[in-house]
Specification:
This protein is an alpha/beta fold and 275 residues long. It is 38% helix and 22% strand.
Length: 275
């Protein structure tokens, strides 16, 4: 069956290494696919507020699956489709622990990113590029009391920018004493905490159920651990050349790197029919 939906991860996949710039080849190919009636969806680990500018730059995105699938936004209607949250009591315990440990982290809730004000510079300095850090400055909410600001807001994800390798196993074990949580990673030494069962594959499968599409009609792009389930699920799945070995093993195809516009290259060949 023909491809009807293209989903693309952003960091390390659609973005270049600065985590902000979209190669012109990607923009041109994705817009051409949209003009042919193919639906496009962002599938990212980030909060919506951090990728909104990129979606607007592309100008052809219909859906945004964010926070590793914990939330989804219908951009054609301007409506949230769902939020899957970490329970409030568990979130309070986890954020209190992370603040005590002095780790650089942010919390996603209802499409926004929240950062404790006193930790702002530490968090920004821990971002994977200066350009990413500037996105945090512009798009995040810096609050005096993180837990107070998050009350009554479903917590989609807790993102720790960097956890030293020697501390990761012990930290995960301690976090899981506070409640069930899935742990993932997207780049470097980062750690992503989400509700059990939340992932990009489950989210895109739910989106496809609403659109009456099957996995064989989905083209998916990714590069990291939090993309692997989706790359296994989608009928047309592509890992970029810079992807982790796990992502490459999960994907059915390989394409060029994020720096070389690998997303656009594959869309040109398999959707637009260009050699």
């Amino acid at each position: 069956m023909e491809i009807q939906l293209i989903t693309m991860d952003m960091d390390g996949t659609t973005f270049q290494d600065d985590h902000v710039t979209i190669p012109p080849r990607n923009i041109t190919a994705l817009r051409a696919a949209a003009e042919r009636g193919i639906a496009l969806a962002i599938t990212t680990g980030r909060a919506w507020s951090q990728v909104q500018e990129a979606a607007e730059q592309l100008g052809c995105i219909s859906w945004a699956v964010t926070a590793n699938g914990a939330s989804a936004l219908d951009l054609t209607q301007g409506e949230w489709l769902w939020h899957t949250g970490i329970p409030a009591e568990q979130r309070r315990a986890m954020t209190t622990l992370l603040l005590k440990r002095g780790l650089p982290f942010e919390v996603y809730a209802q499409g926004d990113s929240y950062i404790q004000q006193e930790r702002a510079e530490q968090v920004i300095a821990s971002s994977p590029s200066p350009e990413y850090g500037e996105v945090l400055r512009r798009r995040c909410r810096f609050v005096a009391d993180l837990n107070a600001a998050l009350e009554e807001r479903p917590t989609e994800k807790i993102h720790i920018f960097s956890v030293p390798a020697g501390q990761r196993a012990a930290l995960v074990e301690e976090l899981r004493t506070l409640g069930p949580v899935d742990v993932d990673s997207a780049f470097g030494a980062n750690m992503e905490l989400i509700a059990p069962g939340v992932n990009k594959a489950a989210a895109v499968a739910e989106l496809c159920r609403r659109l009456d599409l099957g996995p064989e009609q989905v083209m998916a792009f990714g590069d990291a651990g939090n993309d692997e389930a989706l790359l296994r699920w989608a009928g047309w799945s592509f890992a970029v050349a810079n992807a982790s070995e796990g992502a490459k093993g999960a994907a059915k195809h390989l394409t060029a790197s994020n720096e070389a516009g690998g997303v656009g290259l594959a869309v040109e060949r398999y959707v637009l029919g260009r050699a």
